[in-house]
Specification:
- This protein is of the alpha/beta class and 173 residues long.
- It folds into two domains: 126 residues, Dna Topoisomerase Vi A Subunit, Chain: A, domain 2 (3-Layer(aba) Sandwich), CATH 3.40.1360; 42 residues, no CATH class.
- The protein has six helices and four strands, in the order βαβαβαβααα.
- It has a four-stranded parallel β-sheet with strand order 2-1-3-4.
- Strand 1, helix 1 and strand 2 form a beta-alpha-beta unit.
- Helix 2 runs parallel beside helix 3.
- The longest helix is centred in the first third of the chain and has 17 residues.
- The chain is globular and about 45 Å long.
């Protein structure tokens, strides 16, 4: 059994299945596979998801598919480019878009979902799903920071807390 997950970008494709499994695996008797399919942003997803969903739902693995789920950021589309005039608040936009996109696919196993804010915000709520990138990442995920007057922006540029740059110190003498 599996879900097909339509997403709008690379970070969602790589991390969302891990994030969703952490929740699903504690609630289901059998592990469900999540197959993410990446689109090139919300416009590509809106344009091509009906055809892609029907290809999946009517394809050779159709009996194995529990659902095709499309997910993108509610505030991703520019309101003039996607939402009809008059849809001003998030509830109106959500209701219209969910109904419209599910109608385009017109299949009982297709559902449209939205993240009210960037989907990446969900991912940041659980730093344990990210692979460690070394001591700096480990310190960031545990909050184990040491006091340092030379913050990341200054270290990157080489500017010291006195405001001078070590690269120019010899020319200032």
């Amino acid at each position: 059994m599996k879900f097909i997950l339509f997403v709008e970008g690379e970070s969602e494709k790589k991390i969302l299945p891990v994030f969703l499994h952490k929740w699903l695996d504690t609630r289901l008797n059998n592990r469900v596979r999540i197959d993410p399919i990446k689109f090139r942003g919300w416009a590509d997803l809106v344009k091509n998801s009906p055809q892609s969903a029907l290809l999946e739902l009517n394809g050779p693995e159709k009996d194995e598919i529990i659902a095709v789920i499309s997910l993108f950021d509610l505030y991703g589309p520019d309101h003039d480019d996607f939402y009809p005039a008059g849809r001003k608040n998030s509830r109106e936009r959500y209701n219209w878009a969910k109904q419209e996109l599910e109608k385009r696919v017109n299949h009982i196993k297709f559902r449209q979902f939205f993240a009210v804010h960037e989907t990446e915000a969900w991912l940041l709520s659980d730093p344990t799903i990210f692979p460690s990138a070394g001591p700096a990442a480990d310190a960031a995920s545990t909050g184990n920071f040491q006091h340092d007057d030379e913050g990341p922006a200054r270290k990157k540029t080489g500017i010291t807390s006195s405001g001078s740059s070590p690269a120019f110190a010899s020319s200032e003498k």
